[in-house]
Amino acid sequence: MTSPHGSLREELLPSTRRALLHRIATAQAEGRTPSFVAAVQREGRTVWDGARSCVKDHEPDADTQYRIGSLTKIFTAVLVLRLCDEGVLGLDDPLEQHLPGTGVGDATVFQLLSHSAGLAAESPAPWWERTSGTVRPELADVLGDQPRTQSAGRSHHYSNTGYTLLGSLVEAVRGASWEEVLRREILEPLGMRRTSTQPVAPHAGGWAVHPWADVMLPEPSEDLGLMAPAGQLWSTTADLLRFAAFLAEGDEKVLSGDSLHKMRVPAASLAPDDWDGAYGLGLQIVRRDGRTLVGHTGSLPGFLAALWICVEDGLAAVALTNATSGPLVAGVAADLVRIVAEAEPRIPAPWRPLPEADSALLALTGPWYWGTHAYVLRVVADHGVELHPMRGAGRGARFRFRPDGTWTGLDGYYAGETLRVVRNSDGAVDHLDLGSFVFTREPYDPGAAVPGGVDAEGWRGLAI
User: Cα–Cα 20 to 30 A to 221, which of 6, 66, 71, 461?
Assistant: First the structure.
């Protein structure tokens, strides 16, 4: 079922579809933008897309290109992390090791990805977003005489120049242009045929709307040259939802699951008063309406863009508009996720037993004690385990099984830590060792190797 305002598919309830349409119609009208296009994905499938336009019967659709600004940074981050997957780069490698002569070569790959290298937010004048990249033909022109505004590694400071360096790093290592590597390693494998560095019809034109009058001015659309990896791309709602599905579910032919997970984990601290946002590796992380969203916002003169993904709810939303300012598209995209999540909550998959029972693992399940703190160990898929406090909050974590018979922590306090089974001389389990912490079957089990020993008189009451 379709309407002149966009595709209204039966996967969503009519009331939900109307609420989504109302949200973007309000954004277009109150934000005074020439056009507004948006779409929602659930469980990897597009379930709604809609549009509004100031020109009657001339609304954009899911195939209409808009400039997406800093959403481009996610693509650049994926290209860099692919090199890490291959072992060509390391996150802790200094830039100088692979791209010498920049003057800021002590910045690490991790710091550049997470905007914690202390680099300036923008390149020197003239305003790079409204001038041709030919004005800055060399990296020295992008970085200027004072490329750093603060010490590296101390805190998050958003930097467009940092992502220019990452794009040049990709080119240096691959021996091909950033655009060519992007097309070959991300766009083609994910079927993103309507994402490009230059506009391809049908595409929207960029406009500035006067702040105090209902009149417009066309914005220039420049080729950003070396700055392209920070904000050059044009895309569509359909293509961006394909990208969202990859960012949520992964695709090993593009990026490993481990690297994808690293992108979604906060990597650098923000200002003390900013409790609702963080930055991972190429991804913004925000808390909205009690749920975590990952994605990015983007802006260039004439365009605004936002893509948010809620992995837990299996939802993603994209919002694009062709105005320099006006509608807060980040809020609109977050609202689209919220509307669907609240109106039609995710239905969990049916419980299914594991494909096989591992007797050795089953023998480890149940209560364990760190001192007097009670924990429970559960077995999950692929011989993994989870260890969580029996009551209340605490240091719980998931662990991935390793071929050597140990497990590696995946999250929380124990991320990266090793969990192993320690046996006594007859092969029986003595205790679990987790980063040197001893977990025993009984609180301070006198028969286990508890550091410091256990008082020989055992537990006692208070004699009065």
Answer: 6
